[in-house]
């Protein structure tokens, strides 16, 4: 059913809940994983227009994706990575379509109305902009 799963990572604590869940699903389905992080800092959002150099944050994001991919690959999974730049919801939808993903997996922080207004809701924006099914895993935030 799902052959290629886009896993939207934020390079934060929520990923620790999302990745094991999705790794197990991918093993059971024999699915390939595409780990995506969207860098959305000032340099990332203006990278192309201003012909900027890659920022330290962007390099750290690439390293993070590589570490996650290596760990999952050691577990026998087929994994690729991609670092996108700009608006996270728009880039998640764009990459999922361009890479022919069957499922988009994201972590939820469980914000309520005020939290969504303050932090924005990537999940809400993605679900309104794509016809690709979403799997939302509630993050367990420790520490």
Structure description:
The chain has 143 residues and is an alpha/beta fold. 45% of the residues lie in helices and 22% in strands. It has helices at 15-29, 42-45, 56-74, 88-98, 113-119, 122-129; strands spanning 4-9, 32-39, 79-85, 103-108, 134-138. A five-stranded parallel beta sheet has the order 3-2-1-4-5. α1 (15-29) links the parallel β1 and β2. The longest helix is centred in the middle third of the chain and has 19 residues, at 56-74. The N and C termini lie far apart (36 Å).
Summarize the entry for a quick read.
By secondary structure, this protein is an alpha/beta fold. Helices cover 45% and strands 22% of the residues.
Q: Please give the number of β-strands.
A: 5
The helix fraction, in percent, is: 40-55%
What does the radius of gyration come to?
15 Å
Secondary-structure element sequence?
EHEHHEHEHHE
Percent of sequence in beta strands: 15-25%
Helix segment count? 6
Through-space gap between termini: 36 Å
Q: Give the overall pLDDT as a whole number.
A: 86
Uncertain parts: 114-119
Give, in spatial order, the strands making up the sheet with the most strands: 3-2-1-4-5
Judged by helices, strands and strand pairing, the structural class is alpha/beta
Shape: globular
Largest sheet: 5 strands, parallel
């Amino acid at each position: 059913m799902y052959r290629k799963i886009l896993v939207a990572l934020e390079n934060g604590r929520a990923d620790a809940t999302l990745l094991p869940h999705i790794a197990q699903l991918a093993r059971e389905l024999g699915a390939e994983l595409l780990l995506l992080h969207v860098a959305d800092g000032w340099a990332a959002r203006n990278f192309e227009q201003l012909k900027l150099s890659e920022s330290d944050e962007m390099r750290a994001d690439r390293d993070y994706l590589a570490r996650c991919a290596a760990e999952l690959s050691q577990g026998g999974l087929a994994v690729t990575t991609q670092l996108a730049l700009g608006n996270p919801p728009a880039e998640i939808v764009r990459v999922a379509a361009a890479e022919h993903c069957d499922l988009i997996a994201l972590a939820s922080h469980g914000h309520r109305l005020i939290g969504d207004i303050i932090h924005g809701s990537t999940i809400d924006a993605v679900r309104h902009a794509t016809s690709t099914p979403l799997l939302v895993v509630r993050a367990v935030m420790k520490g």
